[in-house]
Amino acid sequence: MKHALSVTREQDFAAWYQAVITEADMAEDSGVRGCMVIRPWGYGIWERIQALLDARIKASGHENCYFPIFIPLSYFEKEAEHVEGFAKEMAVVTHHRLKGEAGRLVVDPDAKLEEPLVVRPTSETVIGTAFARWTQSWRDLPLMINQWANVVRWEMRTRMFLRTSEFLWQEGHTAHATRDEAEAETRMALEMYRSFAEDALAMPVIAGEKPENERFPGAVVTYSIEAMMQDGKALQAGTSHFLGQNFATAQNIRFQDKDGQTAFAWTTSWGLSTRMIGGIIMVHGDDDGLRLPPVVAPRQVVIVPMLRDNDEDEAVLDYCKAIAADVARQSAFGEPVRVLVDTKATKAAGKRWGWVKKGAPIIVEVGGRDLAAGNVSALRRDRLYTPEGKLASAIVARDAFAASVAATLEEIQTNLHGEAKARLEVAIRRDVTDFAGVEAFFAEGVVRPGWLEVEWARPTGAELDQVIERLKALKLTLRNVPLDAAPAAGVCVFTGAPAVERVLVGRAY
Amino acid sequence: MKHALSVTREQDFAAWYQAVITEADMAEDSGVRGCMVIRPWGYGIWERIQALLDARIKASGHENCYFPIFIPLSYFEKEAEHVEGFAKEMAVVTHHRLKGEAGRLVVDPDAKLEEPLVVRPTSETVIGTAFARWTQSWRDLPLMINQWANVVRWEMRTRMFLRTSEFLWQEGHTAHATRDEAEAETRMALEMYRSFAEDALAMPVIAGEKPENERFPGAVVTYSIEAMMQDGKALQAGTSHFLGQNFATAQNIRFQDKDGQTAFAWTTSWGLSTRMIGGIIMVHGDDDGLRLPPVVAPRQVVIVPMLRDNDEDEAVLDYCKAIAADVARQSAFGEPVRVLVDTKATKAAGKRWGWVKKGAPIIVEVGGRDLAAGNVSALRRDRLYTPEGKLASAIVARDAFAASVAATLEEIQTNLHGEAKARLEVAIRRDVTDFAGVEAFFAEGVVRPGWLEVEWARPTGAELDQVIERLKALKLTLRNVPLDAAPAAGVCVFTGAPAVERVLVGRAY
After folding, report:
1. Are residues A381 and A364 in the same domain?
2. What confidence score (pLDDT) does residue A80 get?
């Protein structure tokens, strides 16, 4: 069977990933080092993520704010561990003026800043400074805010959506009067991400605690959701950090409690980024391109009029618009169905496959014959082919199509989730009990080995370092300790000591 | 009559402006030079602006994208006029790493970028580069995109919302096959801003063409909407630029037309920013703080429970929530009414005035007595006082309140617009016919002199420079040539030559 992309997942997963992005017009190289242009179809997915996640963030009591993109260098010195950890590869603004010189533009050496400004890699330091100003009494707490913003981390090796120097994200930041409250908040954010991934993105994920070495610098506990890509690799798709009093101490976020005593607040932070779009591609895409879960598809139904440059065209177009109006009156997932009539001046023949590659959930072609018969020719992106390998487009009466569209979209959402869930469950093995088994599993030469969930003793310090080194040799990392894993009953696969819990091991993006 | 702010508009307009921002918790100094923190109430207004304007942008056929925040220095050299004009005071990234040195963090001299990166002051250059990639045939046109983004212009003297080094905006960018189409697009964007300001922000504006010296660098025509603040100054609140083929030539945006000939595209750009929030304050605010047009108020109705730390509190709270639920079922301006029960742990006494200062359109207090009688005590922000100078709160039956809330909100919107419109109309004088009259008008020592609309011959070059110098001595600028002004019939107030049109003259932010 011939597919729409020039490369399949089997052949070269990385090349396939890039081909999906290009062929679906999602993003492209900007010509600016490490930065991409997010094109309308890619950005439309981000807008859907924003709208849906923002509603959850607000419903759980958080308010949106905006903080400066620039953070004075000295702010990073306050939280030493934070600096040592990752805050080094950052874009630094040192000057504030260009000038003409011999017909060229150059940086004006006279316009050097007294203190360099870092382009935010994350906003704990600048938001913590504001929290310190806003917090006097227990009455001021909790502070629960969120920001949608661009951040920059200077990456040497970039890959679209997954790792770019500039990316878009939301970062939640909260401060609480008690440890319990802050811990509950951290878990709330994790659960918000988990349910969002499952429900909106049809993306099964494992929620759990990151091992010590994978914690956010300065955090006491870091949780993540981990999704499995079709090549078996893990994608960390959202993180939530319990920061204890570390940042509050460094930034002097103090308050008077009900008894008049001064105490440091307990803080959290949590983020989810455009990286998630890479996850959607690698979880749901197939050899014909992207497949979008209807909940986050910018357009759920696309109608392609088959125009022939003749007298009938106008009637066909009117017919398409009338169908679109019917469809837009339907409601799926509690919102009006998003429908588009593709009137671009390109040829109809290429259009349908264009929308297949873009992953529109339902694609409809309408020509003169359909108009005469009151029909449409409908294609479901999740079931593109018949068992015989033919395109599974179905002729449906116009009214029946409009009446069924919401149910079909909901079925597609469920199908995509089910497919991915089945893949994930098969790909996690839980029966390996020693390190030789780990080596064997990942050395098998299988293209998609998946993950292991193994028992371990949660070693720390030097002992943990040794474990990480051994895993590194196999290109493996510890992903997380799943919250809903079975209790440990045996011995640690790494140390042989009595196991205390179960941890996921895998390759990762 | 004592007012809620410590300074009135009469006493010191600039101090009053800052007091509104502080007392309404809209924004604050961030500690980072020229950058502010936009707090939830201020950001909530921006979110409303985004939602409403974005819907108009999309409805007129534009799609959202995202382009890099960094623009290589060399991109600015392509469009020479653009560079000479304003693109000089900009934040420049020169390094990509910090390092520890003697216990401090410093910029790592080994991590100097080969080519400096400018933090975007606007995105014509980087978007034009993409347009050049996307444009081969007339079939690819028009390109109609928009971006919501942060931009940075290094400002020496900043004022919250009005002029900050970093600000948030939308920038529309389009490319067309013909001059007519691009001109129509430029006017479409202007009309979109005009109607948005009038309808959503209740802000009367004058739409017109900027004089030559006030054009966007590289533009052939720049249009603006100008709003009048309560101190009589103008605020340029949105601009739309017809760029001709200037940027297309510099950036090589070419296409093959229907006849197979290669031609440069015609481009436009248009933007509206967080500056508009400053405009809302200065158009609608009064000596008790902000007054928000209901269409853009983050919360349209705020219910303050008067709790007394006794057994009755729970019943009062439940009663408030029930009223809020009734109100949320109402629809105003085609959307559900946005209502909040203020349950913060601060004292009720201060709460109502807090919401007055924040400008919530309808503020409701509910205590035990109201609960017993089935009433609420409602206050309209646009009519805070009785003619006798008492607070005009009204006791209303709960059901009647909920049933009337939508109509009241719509009335408040109309009232605020009417007030501002009346002020604007009185403040524009059109009968001055010579420069002595101009001098007399603005020298009168009146606090709010307003604007003059005068006839002029549209001088250019050195003659225009002279006009600008003469106006500058009076701290005046040419605002715009109103599109709907009467035709000119007399002589130019500046040159005495036969007049060709009418132009607005005023002080400006």
Report:
1. yes
2. 59
Question: Residue A438's domain spans which residues?
Answer: 430-506
CB-based contacts of B226: which residues, under 8 Å, 6+ apart? B205, B206, B208, B234, B235, B236, B237, B479, B480, B504
Is A91–B93 a contact, with Cβ atoms under 8 angstroms apart?
yes
Q: pLDDT at residue A73 above 70?
A: yes
From A391, A424, A457, the end of a domain falls on: A424
Across the interface, of B63, B91, B150, the residue whose CB is closest to A40 is B63
Choose among A47, A83, A118: nearest Cβ to B64: A47
Among A401, A358, A362, A408, smallest CA distance to A381 is for A362
ipTM higher than the 0.85 cut = yes
Give the Cβ contact number of residue A374 at 10 Å: 11
Q: Which residue has the higher pLDDT, A304 or B156?
A: A304
Tokens 């020169």 locate to B94
- From B325, B281, B272, select the one nearest B301 (Cα to Cα): B325
Question: Could you give the CA distance from residue A225 to residue A239 in angstroms, rounded to a whole number?
Answer: 7
CATH number, domain of A480, equals: 3.30.110.30
Q: Is residue B364 part of a domain?
A: yes
Choose the mutation target among B30, B46, B123 for the interface with A, i.e. most A CBs under 10 Å: B30
Among the listed residues A248, A239, A286, the one whose alpha carbon sits nearest the alpha carbon of residue A266? A248
For the cut 70, the answer to whether the pLDDT of residue B65 exceeds it is yes
Is A172 among the domain residues? Answer: yes
| Residues B217 and B300 placed together within one structural domain of the fold | no
Question: In this structure, what CATH number is given to the domain that contains residue A364?
Answer: 3.40.50.800
- Show residues of chain B in contact with A70, CB under 8 Å: 32-33, 35, 91, 165-166
CATH code (residue B53): 3.30.930.10
Chain B contacts of A43, Cβ < 8 Å?
A: 63-66
Whether B500 has a pLDDT exceeding 90, the answer reads yes
Task: Judge if B49 and B162 occupy the same domain.
Answer: yes
Closest in A35, A74, A94 to B68, CB measured: A35
Q: Does B139 touch chain A (CB under 8 A)?
A: yes
